[in-house]
Amino acid sequence: MMQNTDIAVIGAGPAGANAALTAARHSLSVTLLDEQPTAGGQVWRAKSTAILDAPNTPETVAGSRLRQEIDDSLVTHIGAARIWQIERSEKGWNLYVLRQGRSEVLHARALIIATGAREFVQPAPGWTTPGVLGLAGATALFKQEMTLPGKRTIVSGTGPLVFFVASEIRRLGGEVAAIITPNSRGDWLRCLPAMVSRPDLLLRGARWIADLILGGIPIWWRHAVTRVEGQTQVASIEFRKLTADWSPTGPARRVEGDSLCLGNGLLPATEAAQLAGLWLEYSLQLGGWVPCQVADGGTDIGGLFLCGDGTGIRGAAAAEIHGRLAGLSAVQHLGADTRAERDRLRAAFHRAARFGMAMTSLGIPRPGLLRLTTDETIVCRCESLSRTDIAAEISSGAGSTNAVKSGLRAGMGPCGGKFCQTTVARMIAETEGCTEADVPPPTPRPPLRPVPVAALAGDFRYSELPIPKPAPL
Ligand SMILES: Cc1cc2nc3c(=O)[nH]c(=O)nc-3n(C[C@H](O)[C@H](O)[C@H](O)COP(=O)(O)OP(=O)(O)OC[C@H]3O[C@@H](n4cnc5c(N)ncnc54)[C@H](O)[C@@H]3O)c2cc1C
Questions:
Q1: 40 C-beta closer than 6 A to ligand 1
Q2: Distances from the Cα of 385 to the Cαs of 188, 283, 349, 377, in angstroms?
Q3: What are the DSSP calls for 22-49, one per residue?
């Protein structure tokens, strides 16, 4: 049973884990919670027991080191623990945690939220066909299970993940049919000045691309997937050239494959921060809507701290340092002076962030991207709503994501809007002639994650229920 802790950290990725480790060195009790059973987050996801002997990669090595550090520290790490509600209390924070089928409450004097990012996929006709996976989501398959998306995979999307995923598929023995990316070579060249700040990462990326070119894999720069074909499984895809604003143009080409990894960048996962009471602001450079923050992971709510990709997509290297800064800020809030330590970390954070934000810039959506979502395309997968359905709702007066949600249930399904709300917001912005910055995400509501009713009801016998006597007639 969980009860009290000085500092609770939600998310055991590079940011949250480093926040917890840093704070625990200052003799405070620290509880690190994550819905994944093992620490490491998305980037340093642990191998499952079935593949423990598989060759190591830079990600598995970094993840193992982090997990060992947590084991050797005074941090209480609780895995497979899902936070579904956050409440501010007089003395700090109450976290409602779903664990082993039960809901428990953890009280913390300070709270650090490090919930990372989620993937954005621009819906295109057929994107819900079995065999289509998120580009970032596919990395989880490789790291955790060494499983391939299929026998012959098309890899499509923005930024560096497209080359990482294609390289991993080849390393694991799969075939890459083609790489299709909206980015041009010029987009990449513009990132070079920022990328030289991390020559190690630059070299790794260059090796992926060189290996793919030498392997004869066709790379279609400034192109996008415009249709996925196949009844019960991906059979082929259609793709087209993009204009400078990323509108599809020219004749369609086709490539055959049984699977497609598709992604258009990452979005900060802000729901937990919103539920804790923070307002959001829009930052194109940081990946979209981000919680309002002050320096070093602090916020203007006492005892609440944030770090990592959930505050803006700056990448794993920056997330680690941001975590340490947030951990130190939380320690400062609880009484110790950590200013000198934070001063020493800040320059490294800005250097790492510069590299990460250059990668994020490659995924900044251009207006034409929305053209990939044709009228018949499903936008809300949970409720099977097409672009036409959502456009009709917007035309009838629903001018906010909240209005579309209450009118159509887009965002009320199991994913809680994670897949559709960005496209809905962009459709509203297009119709209203404003920008996405004028269309905030829907009001956050608990539960953050689905909660079984049994977990809330607990154990009881019906005979134990007090049944009031009938009122006298
Ligand atoms: C699917 C995916 C795959 C990615 N793969 C790569 C990659 O291969 N290489 C790369 O460089 N970058 C990758 N990224 C980007 C990468 O995640 C980040 O740059 C980096 O991991 C950020 O670290 P973080 O600690 O901020 O977040 P994360 O590493 O994402 O950690 C956040 C943690 O919070 C936990 N969490 C979130 N909400 C809750 C909740 N309500 N209750 C309990 N736990 C919660 C999550 O389970 C997760 O472990 C990926 C992103 C995504 C979304």
A1: no
A2: 36, 28, 42, 8
A3: HHHTTT--EEEE-SSSSS-TTTTPPPPG
pLDDT tens figures, 393-434 = 999 999 999 999 999 999 998 888 999 999 999 999 999 999
For the stretch 459-471, pLDDT in tens is 778 888 788 888 8
Contact 69/49 with Cβ under 8 angstroms? no
- Contacts for 473 with CB less than 8 Å, ≥ 6 apart: none
DSSP category for residue 216 = T
How far is residue 420 from each of residues 8, 131, 299, 387, measured CA to CA in Å?
Answer: 30, 19, 28, 10
Phi-psi region of 425 (alpha: psi -120 to 50; beta: other; left: phi over 0): alpha
How many helices (H) and strands (E) the chain has is answered by 13, 21
The dihedrals phi and psi of 372, each to the nearest 5 degrees, come to -65, -25
Q: How many residues does the chain have?
A: 473
Taking a C-beta distance cutoff of 8 angstroms, is the pair 170, 149 a contact?
no
Amino acid at 295: A
Report the residue among 42, 84, 104, 168 best suited for mutation to probe ligand 1: largest number of ligand atoms under 8 A from its CB: 42
Closest residue by Cα to residue 137 from 234, 257, 260, 301: 260
43 C-beta closer than 6 A to ligand 1: yes
Q: How far is the CA of 268 from the centre of ligand 1 (A)?
A: 10
- Tokens 């409450």: give the residue: 105
* Domains of the chain and any CATH numbers: 4-118+267-360 (3.50.50.60), 121-264 (3.50.50.60), 373-438 (1.10.10)
Q: Extract the runs of DSSP E, i.e. beta strands, from 208-353.
A: 219-221, 223-229, 236-242, 248-256, 259-263, 266-268, 280-283, 288-291, 304-306
Which residue intervals of 334-398 are DSSP H helices?
339-361, 387-395
The pTM for the full model equals 0.95
Q: Decide: 326 in ligand 1 pocket, CB within 6 A.
A: no
Q: How far apart are CA 439 and CA 46, in angstroms?
A: 37
Can you tell me which residue has the tokens 């050797």? 72
* Strand 236-242 versus strand 223-229 pairing type: antiparallel
Q: How many CB atoms lie within 10 A of CB 390?
A: 23
Give, as one character, the DSSP assignment of residue 298.
Answer: B
For residue 387, the one-letter residue type is R
